[in-house]
Amino acid sequence: MGRKTPKKGKQKGGMSMDGLDAELSDLFKTLPPIKRAELTKVVEKLFHASSNFSGEPTTPVKQWEEFKEISSLVERVREIEAGHSMCRNLPDRKSAIKPFTAWLKDLGAVIKKVEIGAFGDQGLGLRVTEDVAEGEEVLRIPQRAMMSVETAKTSSIGSLVERDPLLKTMPNVVLAVHLLIERNSPSSMWEPYINVLPHTYSTVLYFTPIQLEGLKGSPALEDALKQYKFVARQYAYFYRLFANTLLKDYLTFDDYRWAVSTVMTRQNLVPAKDGSEAACNALIPFWDMANHDQGQVSTDYDPEAGMSLCYAQRKFTAGEQFTIFYGVRANCDFLIHNGFVFPDNQEDCLTLRLGVAKTDAHALLRHAILEKIGVVSQKFYLRRTAEPMDGKLVAFLRVLQMDEEQLNEWQQSTEVEKLLDLQNRLGVDGKVMQYMITRAALLLRAYPTTLELDQQIIKESKDEVERLICQLRLCEKRILVNCVAYCEQMLKTINQ
């Protein structure tokens, strides 16, 4: 009849051994060996697909095909890793505010007339508690509260930072790895700060392929695909690097993109502690809670006190959101690196890639003139201002439209710098304006949506990412429409 299995007795005052095993299994969900082996194979494919050993893709079609391959591998990685991250779960952000603020003040921070508050779709930010005058100091954050490349070098990964070829050259990556390790360190001094950080982000690293397709036609798409590829390669690189260490159980793609996104959206440069003139990438607690608004830079550093200072960029009244100016940056840059679009961005511009065709019979002569006036890049910018074209763009287009006789005259001219002067009218300016009208029309047709449809999506869509992408398209299209209007007006003036 066979031997009976003896009954297991209940443990007094606690759970059974089976229950304890189940509890531990939930707490420590390391990958089983079979899954680990499968993951390693997929990561190897990802590393090779994202490393471009056979050369970078040079056309939009090839860049998209490359992205689809990398994205499919990343999704397979995420499927295998799902439920097996040992990374510490972050608490509710709002419940972490009070202990975070107390921790920061204990370290010597001075916080005046502002507090952390919730601001709808913007998430957490700083709320003004009393009226603040323009130029008034509101924050003093000590350097010892900051997580930086310098603190990484004195941490458990210090020797790795000094010898690893990737970490030696990429301080932002050092900061991301440092953050990820500190998040999981039970003795981390930054635990109160990490607890108040966002759990997820709206950077392009979180976009789906369908969402990224909405960027087709925008210069942002190429930048987004590159960013995704670089981070995928970094993840694969560190997976291989940490393969034989305990760190492998704390490194999933989702955890790494969280760390990278945290650094991208919050890092700033502060002076190095060693007194050198070098700047150091750092996360500045509390200061990094301030959201962006148009204005002026209002952050400074006190080297004697070792404090980062923040002043009011304008007058603020109690109850308002306290904001800072993130600097002169295009909306494309804000979306890629910060995960937002600022519709009222007065510094916004659209990137244009223009060059002299290799088949152009006068290519050498055109390049020679352009080099004389310092126009050596193939990247130009259309601004949202009344005069959307700057001197370098106008000069390039003028040289591009010249015939052989005109090129020879300017090659010998001692006043070649006049090509950069928008007020100095030339005979080719009519062709220049017509070229830009045609070019802008082509660029507008390259977007997957019309201006009217974008305006409708902004009003009706509840999807945050779709609204962000749509807002960027709207901003870029308005720059192009403004450029066409400007060029048409200039043509009328020229033809009078």
Describe this structure in words.
This protein is an alpha+beta fold and 496 residues long. The chain is built from 19 helices and 13 strands. It has helices spanning 17-27, 33-51, 60-81, 93-106, 149-153, 158-163, 165-169, 171-183, 191-195, 209-213, 220-241, 253-266, 331-338, 363-372, 391-401, 404-412, 429-445, 451-460, 464-495; strands at residues 110-111, 114-118, 124-128, 137-142, 147-148, 268-271, 279-283, 291-292, 299-302, 307-311, 321-324, 349-353, 379-383. The protein has a four-stranded antiparallel β-sheet with strand order 1-4-10-9, with no helix packed on it. A four-stranded mixed β-sheet has the order 2-3-11-8, with no helix packed on it. Strands 5-7-6 form a three-stranded antiparallel β-sheet. A hairpin with a 7-residue loop joins β6 (268-271) and β7. α2 packs antiparallel against α3. The radius of gyration is 27 Å and the shape is globular. The relative contact order is 0.10.
How is the largest sheet built, in terms of strand order?
Answer: 1-4-10-9
Category by helix and strand content: alpha+beta
What number is the mean pLDDT? 92
Helix content: 40-55%
Radius of gyration: 27 Å
Assembly form of the protein: single chain
Shape: globular
Distance N to C terminus: 110 Å
| Spans where pLDDT lies below 50 across 5 or more residues | 1-27
Number of helices: 19
**Main β-sheet description:** 4 strands, antiparallel
Beta-strand fraction estimate: 5-15%
The tally of beta strands, per DSSP, is 13
